[in-house]
Design brief:
Strand order of the largest sheet: 1-2-3-5-6-7-8-11-12-15-16-17-18-20
Radius of gyration: 23 Å
Largest sheet: 14 strands, antiparallel, barrel
Order of helices and strands: HHEEEEEEEEEEEEEEEEEEEE
Distance between the termini: 62 Å
Helix content: under 10%
Number of helices: 2
Structural class: mainly beta
Shape: elongated
Oligomer: single chain
Number of strands: 20
Length: 426
């Protein structure tokens, strides 16, 4: 029965598409693990260690946080993904291969990414902490009648990551840290499907899959401070292999016609970051980042379909490894106010239009960021940051003409990100 096999593709796209909306790093990696770095486009993320969110970016940074430190915030993300058909998009051949259908509207919507961190100084050399965030995610939703509905109508993926960590201060120049990561992934996905109906032929059905899973990974980092004004950080986050399981349901004109189990596995990529922070003057601090993400860990996905299907469906993605470069600066206006700016170039793991799924209409993006920090007293800071994401027009030419139809055209995409972070020391 082809419908269940097609549903296997649903989850493969859903897992790849991530879990909270728009201003993630390229692909579906969410950099918004703290709003305090948003105004700098996360330049200097593995070196700056200005609050307890360093647990995520580089656990060695806890050695720069005396006493007990708490930091928490939320980032609101509004992506926009607007598809324009160039006249060549087609419905599946099994349903006639016609060109009917809309452009799908704006597939983006508001999403919110919370974070929370706490660190403790155990003694002069040892520090411990824990962080909670959502490191991967994206959400897209198209109009039900859009021409690409056999690729995707709606999905949402959510992740949560719990990251206990420890750090050790070797001396005044060198610190190191390590952490464990427990991560949960939840996926919900819906799309149109071609369904054979005895005595009638082929009809359009609606398929939905819900899956979840959890897995473990690790992260580590070092910080080297050669002078009082210069700090260098290097951090690494491991791959996390998720094996997700759940259920598939198929409806025809609102009536249930099939259900069963589904399973898939994916290696979410590892990341390495090199950062530098330099206090140029008492008023100006310069920040820089070069990061690498191993997206080639997802060259394809194999989805196992159970029940009376008992077959494997494969999705060819051919993701490539990516690089990100960010530069930023902080201007300390006075004892209470700091102005932040940043810019970044973020490479997409999607190779070209042929391998660009409708659930992840990704492209290289430019980050333009700014923000302010207000210091209340000696131990509390409040950060407000904003980033505009610029993406050039993104071509797509993807699909299987028989089962999915083809989606051919361009996306106009952009993103707005607003974040608020409150950090304090006890």
């Amino acid at each position: 029965m082809k419908t269940r096999n097609l549903t296997g593709r649903v989850f493969s796209l859903a897992v790849l598409s991530g879990a909270a909306t728009a201003s993630h790093g390229a692909g579906f990696q969410l950099l918004e693990q703290s709003a305090s770095g948003l105004g700098n486009a996360y330049a200097g993320s593995a070196a700056i260690a200005e609050n307890a969110s360093t647990i995520y970016f580089n656990p060695a940074g806890m050695t720069y946080l005396p006493g007990m430190n708490v930091s928490g915030g939320v980032t609101a993300i509004r992506p926009s993904f607007k598809f324009s058909d160039n006249g060549q998009s087609r419905a599946p051949l099994a349903l006639g291969g016609g060109a009917g259908g809309s452009n799908g509207g704006d597939a983006g919507s508001w999403g919110f990414v919370p974070n929370a961190y706490m660190s403790w100084q155990l003694n002069d050399r040892w520090f411990a902490g824990v962080g909670v965030g959502a490191p991967f995610g994206l959400k897209t939703e198209y109009a039900d009648d859009w021409i690409g509905r056999f690729h995707s109508r709606e999905f949402e993926i959510r992740t949560i990551n719990v990251n206990p960590s420890i750090a050790y201060k070797v001396n005044e120049y060198f610190s190191l840290g390590v952490g464990a990561n427990w991560q949960r992934i939840d996926a919900t996905y819906r799309l149109a499907q071609v369904m054979p109906v005895p005595g009638v032929g082929y009809m359009e059905a609606d398929g939905k899959v819900k899956m979840h899973g959890d897995a473990w990974g690790w992260n580590a980092g070092v910080i080297f401070q050669p002078t009082a004004s210069t700090r260098i950080g290097l951090s690494y986050r491991s791959k996390i292999k998720h094996s997700a399981k759940g259920d598939t349901d198929i409806e025809l004109r609102g009536n249930p016609v099939g259900s069963g189990s589904a399973s898939a596995s994916v290696d979410l990529p590892d990341t390495a970051v090199f950062s530098i922070m330099h206090e140029l003057t008492p008023s100006w601090t310069l920040l820089g980042d070069v990061s690498w993400t191993g997206w080639s860990s997802i060259p394809r996905l194999d989805i196992e379909s159970g029940g009376n299907i008992n077959r494997t469906t494969s999705l060819d993605l051919r993701f490539r490894d990516t690089w990100r470069v960010a530069l930023g600066a902080n201007y300390h206006v006075n004892e209470k106010w700091t102005w932040k700016v940043g810019v970044a170039i973020d490479q997409s793991p999607v190779r070209n239009a042929e391998y660009r799924p409708t659930s992840l209409p990704d492209n290289n993006r430019l980050w333009l960021s700014t923000g302010v920090q207000y210091r209340h007293g000696a131990n509390t800071t409040v950060d407000l940051g904003y980033t505009y994401l610029h993406l050039k027009d993104t071509p797509i030419d993807n699909g299987n003409a028989l089962a999915q139809g083809r989606v051919v055209g361009d996306y106009k995409s952009s993103g707005h990100v607003i974040g608020l972070q409150v950090s304090t020391r006890f």
